[in-house]
Amino acid sequence: MVVAFLPIFAANVVFAKRFADSADATVSFGANLLGAMVGVAWSIWRWSSGYQDC
Questions:
Q1: Fewer beta carbons within 10 angstroms: which end of the chain, N or C?
Q2: What are phi and psi of 22, to 5 degrees?
Q3: What are the backbone angles phi and psi of residue 27, rounded to the nearest 5°?
Q4: Backbone phi, psi, residue 11, to 5°
Q5: Is pTM beyond 0.90 here?
Q6: Any residues with CB less than 8 A from the CB of 30 and at least 6 apart, and which?
Q7: Is residue 18 within 8 Å of 28, Cβ to Cβ?
Q8: Chunked in runs of 10, what are the mean pLDDT values of the chain (54 residues)?
Q9: Which residues in the chain belong to E strands, given as ranges?
Q10: Of 5, 1, 7, which is closest to residue 15 (Cα–Cα)?
Q11: What span, in angstroms and rounded, lies between the C-alpha atoms of 44 and 37?
Q12: d(Cα 25, Cα 16) in Å, to the nearest integer?
């Protein structure tokens, strides 16, 4: 169960570190949101197109 949440935890740690070092918080937060939206769109496209890893 812990292994399933490890990538999410790692992404949060990386974002927090990069966000703290950022000169412009608005751009950093916007880039994070854009990346999340692209990831969700990619997942939905893969799911709707019937893509399988096998």
A1: C
A2: -80, 145
A3: -65, -40
A4: -65, -40
A5: no
A6: none
A7: yes
A8: 84 88 88 91 89 64
A9: none
A10: 7
A11: 11
A12: 11
